[in-house]
């Protein structure tokens, strides 16, 4: 982590007032999680206003929280979705039930933010895009690859011409060759972002492909390369950056689409069930 930021937080200049000291103490203790915070969430935890946080960050040498996040992300050498904190403390917490109870409460809190997301204009635009697209290509990398594969597989029960693209051909030509109009790229990229995600989204836009990006507020380039951006709430668990939020969001997307497509989904599921029975993939 950037040593000069910590040194600056400990300086007398950054601890002039009582609110200065509270903010400095909070940031110093939680600097590793700051890339996943918002000015509002920090303000709520410290007990000051978001404007006070913004003014403090400017004195710290940053135009805003996004600039601080970018520096912290660039200075990190930890692997994506790392185990954080002291394992001895976690082991003690799990024995008396505190750790799992805290994680459960965090998931419950995330659900309230997901509900707000489902009521947003971006949510409806995403639903419309996924229904109207001639073809849907789902892409994700590293840790969230499996979630994206699940999304593609489930969505293919609701509508045809959905596929997960792994990019192992080195070109993403099936998405970018321009042979079919009305294509949509559904890109899932959260937390420590994949190096291929941003250039792929930009190239897709240049190829006339509509880009839907599911990410979180740690992403600083989201609106530059996407037609629709869904910002899921950032998880801030003390132990592990889990995938529960992303999984819930994509399950809700699929459910929303199924309801709107109605009888079309029934017909498709009946057809797929017949094929499954014919090829014997499932037990009777």
TrEMBL record:
InterPro entries: Homeodomain-like_sf, HTH_RpiR, RpiR-like, SIS_dom_sf, WH-like_DNA-bd_sf. Pfam families: HTH_6 (PF01418). SUPFAM superfamilies: Homeodomain-like (SSF46689), SIS domain (SSF53697). Residues 3-79 form the HTH rpiR-type domain. It comes from the Bacteria. One of its GO terms (biological process) is carbohydrate derivative metabolic process. GO terms for molecular function: carbohydrate derivative binding; DNA binding; DNA-binding transcription factor activity. This is MurR/RpiR family transcriptional regulator. It comes from Rhizobium setariae.
